[in-house]
C-alpha cells in the first residue's frame, strides 16, 4: 500500500496548502447561512420540537462535509487532466484500488475537517445534545465517501472546468440544498415529500441529524441502509471507470 500512502499524502497536502480557501472559506459560508436563517426564523419556528437554530446546525455541518468532499476529489482530477500532470500518477505501479482509496479518503478528510470547523463555530448558537455520536460519525464518514467517489466520477468524466461546474451546479447543488438541510420534509406538500425520498442526500442529512436529537423524518436504520447501498453503487461505478482507464489512459 505504499502507492496509496504516497498518493494520499499528496492529496491531503494539496488541499492543506491552501486551507484558507479549502477549509476556512466553507466554514465562513456555513456561519453566514446560520446567522441569516436563525435571525429570521429562530423565534418563530420549531421543527420536531427542536429549536430552529439547533435543527439547522447539523444540516449545515453535513452539507459542508458533502460539498467539500465532492469538491476535493473532482477539482484534483480535473486540474490534473487539464494540466497533463495526471500522467505522473498513472505511470507509477499504483493499482486502481489504491488510486480510488487515496482520492476518496483525502476527500473524506477534507469534508470532515470542514464539518468539524462548522460545528465549532456554530455550535454555541444553540444547544446540541449528541444523543448518538456513533450515528453522527457513521453518516459523516459514509456521506463523505459517497461524495468523494462521486467527485472522482465527475472529474474523470469532465474534460474541462465548464463541464465539472455543470455537474456540480445541476446535480450536486440541488441534491444537497433540497435534502432537508433547512426544513423538515413533513412541511412540504405530499407530492414533494415523496420526491424527497428519492434523494439519497436526504437520508444522509436526516440520519446525521438523528445523532444529535434522537428524532428524524424516517427511521435511522432505513437511512443507513439507503446510504450504504448508495455508497456501494457509487464506489463500484468509480472503480469500474478507473479499471477501464476511461478518459484517463485513453
How many domains? The number is 1
Low-confidence stretches: none
Helix content: over 70%
List the secondary-structure elements in sequence, H or E: HHEEHHHHHHHH
**Portion in beta strands:** under 5%
- The largest sheet has its strands arranged as 1-2
Count of extended strands = 2
User: How would a crystallographer describe the biggest sheet?
Assistant: 2 strands, antiparallel
**Helix/strand class:** mainly alpha
Mean pLDDT: 91
Number of helices: 10
Cα-based radius of gyration, to the nearest Å: 18 Å
- Rounded to the nearest angstrom, the distance between the terminal CA atoms is 25 Å
Can you tell me the overall shape? Answer: globular
Task: Describe the protein's architecture and organization.
- The protein has a two-stranded antiparallel ribbon.
- It is globular and about 60 Å long.
- It has ten helices and two strands.
- The protein is 76% helix and 2% strand.
- It has one domain.
List the helices and strands and how they pair.
Elements: H1 2-16, H2 19-41, E1 46-47, E2 50-51, H3 52-83, H4 87-90, H5 96-122, H6 133-157, H7 161-177, H8 190-196, H9 200-213, H10 220-244
Task: Pick out its properties.
10 helices, mainly alpha, 2 strands
Q: How would you concisely characterize the structure shown here?
A:
It contains 10 helices and 2 strands; from the N terminus they run ααββαααααααα. With 250 residues, it is mainly alpha-helical.
